[in-house]
């Protein structure tokens, strides 16, 4: 997988908000695991200096780019901005990767191998819940909640995806461009990944999953909260009701 020309056609988007403690080591590891790949840091005007550090790192790494946004608008808008940037800069694939160390850079080559392979998937998902996937540092109740969430989403929306909320992904940019012209993505937070999976499936996109290990963040504070999760699952019900009404 390493040293393939496909990596130069791929950009990995890493949204950041107060991730100064993690940014340098995570970008270093991503570049080491996937030589030739490009990284786009999307910073939401972090008050801890994450954006300034990103600029300093980019000055020394031509494969590292920075997109500064004016405020904290949520995960969804950050990724949508990254998708538009990737499309306008001529990349063929765009990935999603957490800045907090939860996604393991060593898993990235396996996602890229599938994305760049002859099967031509439109979306590759790094899955915690596909056979061979795992989590590290999670309590049993947290694992149960995440698994139950994916079961709920699959029952309501019929996606056939083991890990519907996974945030470690690679999209084919040409498919993504058509998808975003067809649909308006509404979710800003936790529900964004669910909505993108749902829209991809409804648009006829080919989705494949590869097992990964998700590790509890190494430093900093989690952005997740109970209210965010509740909002996401209410959105799922709303989307399904809307679909049924449109068919009536």
TrEMBL record:
InterPro entries: DPM1-like, Glyco_trans_2-like, Nucleotide-diphossugar_trans. One of its GO terms (molecular function) is undecaprenyl-phosphate 4-deoxy-4-formamido-L-arabinose transferase activity. It comes from the Bacteria. Pfam families: Glycos_transf_2. Residues 12-179 form the Glycosyltransferase 2-like domain. One of its GO terms (biological process) is glycolipid biosynthetic process. Keywords: Glycosyltransferase, Transferase. GO terms for cellular component: membrane. Its EC number is 2.4.2.53. This is Undecaprenyl-phosphate 4-deoxy-4-formamido-L-arabinose transferase.
